[in-house]
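4.2 Preliminary Data

To establish feasibility before requesting continued support, the project team ran the inverse folding procedure on a target of 496 residues. The structure was first converted into the token representation described in Section 3, and no sequence information of any kind was made available to the design step. The complete token record follows.
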């Protein structure tokens, strides 16, 4: 049983039946799976809804179980809201288990994805009270992502994941408190910079502290932790993990191993695990077959890349093929990240920051003996119309167009906040669908380490963006709108 639960590919097709003290323990819904370490289920014990945590690590299951138990007990001892422990021990099958009470509600992460910005701010203020309780009790949660804060239907906020609760001998000092608070607020890229001081002031009032002189330090801490999270995440998406499957040649051969096919001697791929299927594996093995199918539709045909929409079962996908540039180019760029991998990286970066872009599905690179020969970036198809078409269309009223224009500016603002430039801000790279703006064509996008290099490239982005609105008379209003908005924001940023 434990070996099955450790398997990364474990799925819950039907209720998992275990027993505790000869009483049935039903695991009915898998909530979280950390491969080879732990599984979290919603289930039933003694005819009561419960949350079940199973610890399945081959050597350290008992250690993980003990840490979780100790952390939950610390929270309970300090009168900090956390689900009550119903049972702590082993199942009759010999698996370390903790059973917690089930509370009606949703996590802060779930709430975050469906709520207005004003409601999000209110919940963050409620979480300031919870963090205040932690700090006064000499506790610091080490994993402050929003899934670890649970919003009960009663309106109370519960702390989850006791394994990550660290205890200190005395209440936290100011610097430790600010660092912990900054880590919490760095979990989201949606918070407007102007609201960070307001949340800091909320925390200061709850703790009767004067933190006005700490504001600059606090904002730097948030930016530091956000950049760390980006860096950590962008490493993760290039290795085999919970979200990504990696492979070197589906037939089992090494990427460097030769094949009789001179065009496709070897290949490697990165694939989002939720899209993994026999059909997608066949596509990765021979993308040209799907690319050249009669049912495929050209979206873009150029010298450096070709883009087509293809059908794969019930899925509509977009394949962007980066065409080879010749042997000299391949040799000079050998060892560098391919354009397809850059698009994969940048699509995940945008999603991580809350900027809409077509969902990345896979990258596949077919190589010959000279190195990368041809690479493909595969995404879900995103319906919609480009911004050139949208802003000249009479099907959309002026108020809706202004909302969309504001969304475009918000995207550019967020990119600038993290020193990111797109590299090709032409109108066709903004897709609008149901008033949602999607940014595409990401292989030239770059996050700059230094402000000087960012400013130089941002000016090029700005110039290219405004050039969009020179083509037709119907664009003139929007050129003035974007130009004035951009200038006013630059002046505001300089003053702040």
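Position-by-position output of the design step:
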């Amino acid at each position: 049983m434990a070996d099955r639960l450790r398997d990364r590919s474990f799925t819950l097709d039907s209720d998992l039946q275990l027993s505790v003290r000869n009483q049935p323990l039903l695991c009915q819904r898998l909530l979280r799976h950390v491969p080879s370490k732990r599984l979290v289920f919603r289930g039933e014990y003694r005819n009561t809804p419960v949350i079940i945590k199973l610890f399945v690590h081959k050597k350290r299951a008992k250690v993980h179980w003990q840490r979780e138990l100790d952390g939950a007990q610390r929270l309970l001892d300090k009168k900090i809201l956390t689900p009550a422990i119903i049972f702590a021990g082993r199942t009759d099958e010999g698996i370390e288990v903790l059973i917690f009470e089930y509370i009606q509600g949703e996590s802060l992460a779930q709430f975050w994805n469906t709520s207005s910005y004003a409601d999000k701010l209110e919940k963050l203020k409620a979480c300031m009270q919870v963090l205040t309780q932690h700090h006064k009790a000499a506790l610091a949660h080490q994993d402050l992502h929003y899934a670890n804060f649970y919003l009960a239907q009663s309106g109370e906020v519960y702390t989850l994941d006791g394994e990550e609760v660290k205890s200190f001998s005395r209440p936290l000092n100011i610097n430790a408190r600010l660092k912990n608070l900054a880590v919490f607020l760095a979990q989201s890229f949606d918070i407007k910079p102007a609201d960070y001081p307001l949340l800091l002031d909320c925390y200061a009032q709850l703790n009767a502290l004067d933190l006005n002189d700490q504001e600059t330090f606090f904002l730097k801490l948030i930016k530091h932790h956000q950049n760390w999270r980006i860096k950590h995440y962008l490493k993760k998406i290039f290795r085999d993990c919970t979200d990504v499957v990696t492979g070197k040649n589906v037939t089992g051969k090494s990427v460097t191993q030769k094949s009789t096919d001179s065009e496709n001697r070897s290949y490697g791929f990165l694939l989002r695990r939720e899209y993994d299927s026999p059909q997608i594996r066949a596509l990765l093995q021979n993308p040209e077959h799907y690319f050249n199918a009669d049912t495929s539709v050209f979206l873009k045909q150029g010298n450096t890349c070709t883009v087509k929409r293809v059908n794969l079962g019930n899925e509509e996908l977009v394949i962007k093929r980066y065409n080879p540039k010749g042997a000299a180019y391949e040799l000079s760029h050998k060892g560098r990240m391919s354009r397809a991998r850059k698009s994969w990286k940048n699509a995940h970066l945008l999603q991580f920051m809350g900027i809409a872009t077509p969902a990345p599905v896979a990258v596949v690179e077919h190589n010959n003996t000279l190195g990368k020969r041809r690479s493909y970036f595969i995404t879900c198809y995103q319906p919609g119309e480009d911004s050139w078409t949208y802003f000249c269309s009479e099907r959309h009223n002026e108020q809706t167009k202004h909302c969309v224009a504001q969304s475009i500016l918000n995207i550019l603002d967020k990119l600038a906040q993290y020193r990111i430039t797109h590299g090709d801000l032409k109108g066709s790279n903004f897709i609008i669908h149901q008033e949602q703006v999607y940014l595409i064509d990401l292989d030239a996008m770059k996050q700059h380490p230094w402000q000087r290099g960012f400013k130089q490239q941002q000016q090029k982005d700005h110039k290219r963006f405004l050039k969009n609105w020179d083509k037709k008379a119907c664009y003139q209003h929007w050129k003035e709108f974007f130009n004035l908005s951009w200038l006013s924001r630059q002046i505001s940023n300089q003053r702040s």
